[in-house]
Amino acid sequence: MKEHSNKKVAAVTLGCKLNYAETSTILDQLSKKGWLLSSIGERADLIIIHTCAVTKQAEQKCRQKIRAIKRKNPSSKIAVIGCYSQFNPEALSAIDGIDAILGSNDKFDIKRYEDILLGTEPSPLVRVTPANTIEKVYPGYSLPAAASCERTRAFLKIQDGCDNGCSYCAIPLIRGGSRSLPAAHIVERAHLLASSGYREIVLTGVNTGDYRSGGLKLKELLRMLEEVSISRIRISSIEPDIVDRELIALVAGSKKIVPHFHIPLQSGSDRILRAMRRHYDTALYRDRVLMSVENIADCAIGADVMVGYPGETEEDFLKMYHFIEELPLASLHVFSCSIRPGTRLALQITNSERKPVESAEIARRYSELAELGRRHEARFKARYTGKECMVLIERSKPVEAGQPAYSGYTRNYLRVLVESNESQLQHTLPGNEVPVRIDSLDEDLNLKGRVLS
Predict the structure, then answer these.
(1) Contact yes or no for 167/275 (Cβ under 8 A)
(2) Radius of gyration for the chain, computed over Cα atoms and rounded to the nearest angstrom
(3) Quick one: which of 32, 177, 188, 354 has the most CB atoms within 10 Å?
(4) Would you call 102 helix, strand, or coil by DSSP?
(5) DSSP 393
(6) Which of 209, 239, 240 is nearest to 222 (CA)?
């Protein structure tokens, strides 16, 4: 019998899709060593909490989650891993009840978890390898479907780290420079995920579009993945300069790469984009968005935008507002600027080179952009009422009281609540892609439809 065959491990993941992929990798490795995969409510022997540190708000959420989990699971060992562990281990070490703090590199040391559980951990509580010394890129992929109930989308890591040097971003300080996994490894993992029952693969990374390995770039990798027997291939967040004519043509002509891009904007003011050290201007961004929607049928574009970057004036904000107003976006994620220690922006604040925007002004700008984003989303979704879409079912239980029992996503990533009668039950099981007629869009911007016979 394996040493840990009767031990249970559970995990909670906060943050991005990349974190989810890496958590699954760690759980997969533990499972292969005999650990039983569990949930938080099942009194796991070890609970792994995978953290995020992209903003101060993300860090606060991590601290709250750690304390809540420890309070409800006093007998469980707690390992806190990931970006917050790497970025500010001192803050985490002040929280009672944490048994180990593992950074971006050390979280993949499977023996470390075994030592924590056995009480034979020889090293200090905190283990953090400096980000600038991390050269290896560790894999990340979702577990096979049998070990992850009702999972139809798999996250597959292709790249880690970033070399862009944006003034506000701490990710290079946390995850190191850009590096990519070999294409052969990625394709092999994609075949495994497909044979495990997954219907969609989401390619993830810190800077996914910067994929390059053995002379291959993202477009070559996508062509290789099209040979995998998978229904859908989705690209996670990708920089605007990567969305060029060749990539757009590839997606437009593909039966597997879905018509959905998430392209971070960050600001609609060229002056602020230069201060952020972003590698494009609004003209390029507009060109790539328009080129995408004009050439890719049903293309949905999501965007990130930051408000309150230090030095952002009302004129900058209005330029951003009107720029976004004119774009054909399907969704908009708005967030406020967070000063991250160690970044170029933090140094500029310290040296009084940049002045923070007043919090009340940030709140107003945030509110106005969020409402603009809601109008974009409503306008885009309304186009689909009365139409037939292929929906990949992902849930087969009530979303909430009074709502249809099934939900899933269209190819361009619109969530649909699906009604189904008893005779169609087998068609609406998770993993099935079914034709759905979209009947309505409710006031909460939920699309609702019914399965077609």
Answers:
(1) yes
(2) 22
(3) 354
(4) strand
(5) E
(6) 209
